[in-house]
Amino acid sequence: MALDYTQIIKQVKEKKFEQIYLLHGEEPYFIDLISDAIVENALEEHERDFNLTVVYGKDADAGQIIAEAKAYPTMSERRVVIMREAQSFGKFDDLTPYFQNPNPQTIFVICHKYKNLDARSSASKAIAKNGLVFKSEKIKDYNLADYIIGMAKKMGYNMSQKAAILLAEFLGNDLSKVQGELDKLALLVEKGSTINDVHIEENIGISKDFNIYELTNAVATRDVPKAFLIVNHFEHQPKSGPLVAVIANLFGMYAKLMRMHFMNGLTDEEMARKLGMHPFILKQNKQYLKIYPPRKISANIATLHEYDLKSKGLGNSNFTDGELMRELIYKMMH
Fold this sequence. Notes:
There is one protein chain. By secondary structure, this protein is α/β, with parallel strands linked by helices. The protein folds into three domains: 5-136, P-loop containing nucleotide triphosphate hydrolases (Rossmann fold), CATH 3.40.50.300; 141-204, Helicase, Ruva Protein, domain 3 (Orthogonal Bundle), CATH 1.10.8; 212-333, Zinc Finger, Delta Prime, domain 3 (Up-down Bundle), CATH 1.20.272. It has helices at 5-13, 28-42, 48-51, 62-70, 96-100, 122-130, 141-154, 161-171, 175-188, 197-204, 212-220, 224-236, 243-261, 268-275, 279-288, 294-311, 321-333; strands at 20-25, 52-56, 79-84, 106-113, 132-136, 158-159, 194-195. Strands 2-3-4-1-5 form a five-stranded parallel beta sheet, sandwiched between helices. The chain has a two-stranded parallel ribbon with strand order 6-7. The chain is elongated and about 75 Å long. It starts with a helix and ends with a helix.
């Protein structure tokens, strides 16, 4: 059974090391966590000058890597060789002889970010036999808010659902950025307390009232005054709500509402999984179905397409993004 990153880090902290680690996949955050944990636990700080070697995939030479991996440690129990940016190294099969017979005194860590190493290659097969392969996958959008709450909990904080959703909407599933923002909050919020949307607004700069998430909700509930209040805010502070992001978010909402209209007989859990949607958001969206029948959704999607083209200069002579957004929201809500 494949280990998750927490299990691997637990083993590393217990000084149970593999001879080779292949850390690959779309999510770089977990790869960094594991590789940092290996360096921290495999070598004392004073041992790293002579026993830690870092090579970069773009510049690495297979012969040089093998020589480093085969070298013996200096006044230490082990050596650590890390290949960073391994996705730029194109000659993994040249390393297969080493992977088939690794040096027992070397920990060889391969950080292959943003994509997977081909499991059919001879290198991958040899690593799987003599080392550990960890596939680092992105957190699904519908799990992201809960995952952020879990990240905060590990740091000693509770977090409100709305605060987590605000971070998820604003930062997306870039967990490194999420961790960075949580680290900032940890300097300002007392440990053991609950991080809420006010903390997010005051310390990270995401308005709890004037953001794309709130605009989408206002459009979905046809709350005209609130929608235009937010649009007015975006018009004066374009970075807080770019037109391209507003269009993308609204399109995502309408596309999911259309699918929900034809999901009769499914449980909420099944619907959330199929739509890639957090259950909290699903509950909200089920209320919007009464407001937006399929015909209106279809018309609004067509309107979004029209204004997407206008935002790119097609059929738009000299309207600003703010003026286009105001027109777009009016058309969708009437």
